[in-house]
Amino acid sequence: MNDIRLGFAVPIFANPGVTDFRTPNFERLDWRPVVDAVREAEALGYDSLWVADHMFLGRDGAILECWTTLAYLAGITSTMRLGSIHLGNGFRHAPHAAKQIATLDYISGGRFDLFIDPGWRAREHTAYGFDWEPDPARRIARLDAALEVMREMWTAEHPTLANEFFRLDDAICQPRPAQPNGPPIWIGEAFDEATLDLIARRADVWNSMPAGIEVLRQKIERVDQACRDRGRDPSSLRKTLETQVLIYEDPAYAEELFARFDDLAARYPTGNAMTDVIEFVKEGNPNLGGAKTREQLVDEFVIGTPEEVAEKLNAYRALGIDEVICWFMDFPQRESMRLLAERVRPALRP
Predict the structure, then answer these.
(1) Each residue of 249-294: pLDDT tens digit?
(2) What is the DSSP letter of 112?
(3) 5-85+184-347: CATH homologous superfamily?
(4) Residues 217/115/135/54 CA torsion (nearest 10 deg)
(5) CA 22, CA 14: separation in Å to the nearest integer?
(6) Computed from CA positions of residues 335, 341, 343, 345, in that sequence, does the dihedral angle turn out positive or negative?
(7) Which of 52, 58, 215, 337 could anchor a disulfide with 13, C-beta 3.0 to 4.6 Å?
């Protein structure tokens, strides 16, 4: 096995007090601590940074736009890979997206990973006037067609292609991505057969939303079986995890944080920008969503002392996970980010 890679999920929205969704300690969106944390993450040796793609998210809906943010962060980093989290296929015309992706990969020296999604938030699409397809199988078919177009744009001398959703007629995509065949394709979750089929045929990397050890084991078994059913070696598909992380040396630090989470939850009731997200999270893992006990959070996320966190990450690695995208629950404090790099990483087994 290779060493486990560590990714930094860039906190581009605030969700104060919501302990099971990403940024419970971030009281309001503020750009400066985000930039400072990205710079420190690179200095600490994090392997990658990741930016979510939404039109609105968090308590008040305030979120930075994914592509603009990635382009900026490409310019202030040099070693970390750059990734989208669930880039919304319905938000962009695929040939244009292929050009944007080629440009970012080219100017970053081949550091981009394309984590793309068929789209799932009807409300987010209709609020902005994007077309919304209610049938998830049709959305997956459109993503399949988009990925076909992107590969053609990135690799063909004279990109020409027509499928059910898109058409290219001697398109020009220069400069090409720095990575010879274009960026690796990440696809997340595995809710149905259509998604499993797309993962097995198109993905270089599969990603899971937060899950405890046993839930994740079941997900991986389902994805591996989908690969075998389609004649693909499951070991050729990388397995990764996106999750929340809280690390502390002194238990008093955790107690203070959870008390603060309770206070923030009381002061900032979850707004209507998150109602559909909460339901979606429950679909992916019924153990998530709504008020949770500390024991449930510890099971579903990565929470504990450096030694406890190392043990859990080693257990994930034993399942085949080779990269963990980390949402740090104490941000804008950086205690967890530093402890993961300085104390936990040296204790992870190769």
Answers:
(1) 999 999 999 999 999 999 998 778 888 887 776 665 555 555 678 9
(2) E
(3) Luciferase-like domain (3.20.20.30)
(4) 110
(5) 9
(6) positive
(7) 58
CA distance 72 to 234: 35
Residue 131 amino acid letter = D
Number of Cβ within 10 Å of residue 94's Cβ equals 22
Separation of alpha carbons 345 and 333, rounded Å: 19
Map out the domains of the chain as residue ranges.
5-85+184-347
Distance CA 66, CA 112 (A): 13
CA atoms within 13 A on the CB side of 345: 19
- The residue written with tokens 């001697």 in the block is 170
Cβ contacts of 212 within 8 Å, gap of 6 or more: 287, 299, 300
Across-strand partners of 5? 323
Beta bridge partners of 325: 7, 242
pTM of the model as a whole: 0.95
Q: Please give, one letter per residue, the 3-state secondary structure of 139-158.
A: HHHHHHHHHHHHHHHHHCCC
pLDDT in tens, 87-146: 999 999 999 999 999 999 999 999 999 999 999 899 999 999 999 999 999 999 999 999
* Residue closest to 245 by CA, chosen among 338, 332, 326: 326
